[in-house]
Amino acid sequence: xxxxxxxxxxxxxxKNDFYAEVRARGQTPHSEIRLRRxxxxxxxxxxxxxxxxxxxxxxxxxSSAL
Length: 66
Known about the structure:
Layout: H1 3-24, H2 30-48, H3 60-65
């Protein structure tokens, strides 16, 4: 394993240990709080989007082309 790979793995291990300690104390990590807030905002935006706008999902015409 190269030095850079070892350092990257060490960083990930430390980060995972930190979040495990945060959860063990019964708290929610800030990154998870931010993600949950973003999900709420996106759901609100989607609810306000007029139904006449084209969907972002696949349509029958695009899925048949695949």
